[in-house]
Design goal:
Helix content: 25-40%
Number of strands: 12
Number of helices: 13
Radius of gyration: 20 Å
Distance between the termini: 25 Å
Structural class: alpha/beta
Strand content: 15-25%
Strand order of the largest sheet: 4-3-1-5-6-7
Shape: globular
Largest sheet: 6 strands, parallel
C-alpha cells in the first residue's frame, strides 16, 4: 500500500479522498486522472489515505466522512477511519478562518515536534500539500531553512516541507505556489534522504491550455502581440487570493512560461483577478490572445470557460502520489522535472525550463517507460 497524508483538508483533498473511495469501488470512471491508462506498477487500489491535517476548527477532530458533506459529497463509510488532526497555522493562514492549530497554544518548537510525532504515528509514504496559496521565496541552504523556520519567517507550506523532509521518511508533493520543488534546499535534503519533492503549483485549468496555445503559435512562427487571461472563483482559495501577496504569488506561477515557450515575453495580463461567492468552486475563466500572421494580418482567439477548480486538481493527486512513491522506489532522488513540467505551473527544480504540456506528457511517458517499465493498458481503465 501507498500511505498518503493530506496537508490541508479543503475541497481538493476532500474530493480526492472521496473520489478515491469511489474509484476503488468502481462507482466512478477515472476521468481527469492523466495516467489512468498507463500501467507503471502502482495501481490506484494501492493508494490509502493514512492521515490528514488542517487548521479550520470546523474540521479538526472530525473524520473525513463527516467532512465530506461540508463540500456536498456523500459520506462514504471508508472515510470514517481518518480523523483530521490539527496542523500549523503560522502567519500565513487566511484571516477569515477560525483556527484550531498546534501553534495556537504551543511554542513554535513544541508545535513542530507535535507535527513530527503525528508523522511518526501516520507513517506516510507521500505527503501532499493542498493548502491555500501563500507568498514565498526560494530557499538555498538547509541552514537558512532551519533559521527562518524557528524564527517564524516561513509560510506554512515551506514549514511543512521542512518538517517532512527533516523527518526523512516521506516524499513530498506541493500543489500550491510556494517554492518547494523550486527551492534548492528542499531538493537537496530530499536527495540526501532518498526521497522526492514534486511541484510547484498544480496546473489544471486555463494555464496548461494557454501554454499549449503559445507552443502552437510559436511552431507556426506567429508573433504573439498580447495575452489576457483571468480567473474568478467563489471558493476559499479565491477568497484567500484577495490578499495582494497571495494573488501575486499565484500570478508569478501562471505567467512564468511565456519567455521559455515563445523566446520573448509579450504584453500580458495572466492572473486570478477576483472572488465572487456565487460562482463557488466552478470558476469563470476568460482568455484573449492576439497574434500577427503572414502579411502582417492580425488574428485573435477568445475563450470562455467554466471549470470545476478542485476536482481537476484532485484527479492529479491520484497520479502524483503514485508517481512520487514509485519513482523514489526506483532510485530517483531530489525532484523529477519530467513529471513537474506536465503537472505544475512552476516546475522544479528552480532552473527548469517550461515546455508545452503536450511535449511534457511525451517526455514523462518516456521516463516512466525507462525507469518503471510503464506501458499502456491493453484494456484502458477509461474505456
Amino acid at each position: 500500500m501507498v500511505r498518503v497524508a493530506l496537508v490541508g483538508q479543503g475541497y481538493v483533498a476532500t474530493i480526492f479522498a472521496w473520489g478515491l473511495c469511489k474509484l476503488k469501488k468502481g462507482e466512478i470512471e477515472p476521468w481527469g486522472v492523466p495516467l489512468a491508462d498507463v500501467d507503471f506498477g502502482v495501481p490506484v487500489e494501492d493508494l490509502e489515505i493514512a492521515g490528514s491535517v488542517d487548521v479550520d476548527e470546523r474540521k479538526v477532530g472530525k473524520s473525513l466522512r463527516e467532512v465530506a458533506p461540508m463540500y456536498g459529497l456523500s459520506p462514504e463509510p471508508e472515510l470514517g477511519e481518518v480523523v483530521v488532526a490539527p496542523g500549523l497555522k503560522l502567519r500565513s493562514t487566511p484571516g477569515f478562518i477560525r483556527t484550531k492549530a498546534l501553534d495556537d497554544s504551543k511554542p513554535l518548537a513544541d508545535a513542530y515536534g507535535a507535527f513530527e510525532e503525528w508523522l511518526d504515528d501516520v507513517k506516510p509514504d507521500v505527503v501532499v500539500d493542498v493548502t491555500s496559496t501563500v507568498a514565498s521565496s526560494p530557499l538555498y541552504s538547509w541552514r537558512e531553512v532551519e533559521e527562518k523556520a524557528y524564527r517564524g519567517d516561513l509560510p506554512h507550506s515551506q514549514v511543512y516541507a521542512f518538517l517532512v523532509l527533516r523527518h526523512g521518511r516521506s516524499s513530498y508533493v506541493n500543489l500550491q505556489p510556494a517554492y518547494v520543488a523550486c527551492s534548492p534546499a528542499f531538493v537537496e535534503k530530499a536527495r540526501e534522504n532518498g526521497l522526492l519533492v514534486l511541484g510547484d503549483d498544480g496546473a489544471t485549468g486555463a494555464t496548461p491550455l494557454t501554454v499549449d496555445l503559445a507552443e502552437h503559435l510559436k511552431e507556426r512562427n506567429r508573433r504573439v502581440l498580447s495575452i489576457a487571461q483571468f480567473n474568478i472563483g467563489g471558493n476559499t482559495d479565491f477568497l484567500a487570493l484577495t490578499e495582494p501577496e497571495r494573488n501575486l504569488a499565484k500570478e508569478n506561477t501562471k505567467s512564468g512560461f511565456l519567455k521559455d515557450i515563445l523566446g520573448y515575453e509579450p504584453p500580458h495580463f495572466i492572473r486570478p483577478t477576483g472572488y465572487l461567492e456565487p460562482l463557488g468552486d466552478k470558476k469563470f475563466v476568460s482568455m484573449h490572445v492576439q497574434w500577427v500572421s503572414f502579411g502582417g494580418f492580425t488574428d485573435e482567439l477568445v475563450v470562455n470557460m467554466r471549470i470545476n477548480d478542485s476536482p481537476a486538481l484532485a484527479g492529479y493527486i491520484v497520479d502524483l502520489a503514485r508517481l512520487a512513491y514509485a519513482l523514489a522506489k526506483a532510485g530517483l532522488r531530489g525532484t523529477v522535472p519530467e513529471v513537474n513540467r506536465f503537472y505544475m505551473k512552476r516546475p522544479g527544480p528552480l532552473d527548469a525550463r517550461h515546455t508545452s504540456k503536450i511535449q511534457a506528457y511525451r517526455e514523462m511517458l518516456g521516463l516512466l517507460e525507462e525507469k518503471l517499465g510503464a506501458r499502456l493498458r491493453a484494456k484502458p481503465l477509461s474505456a
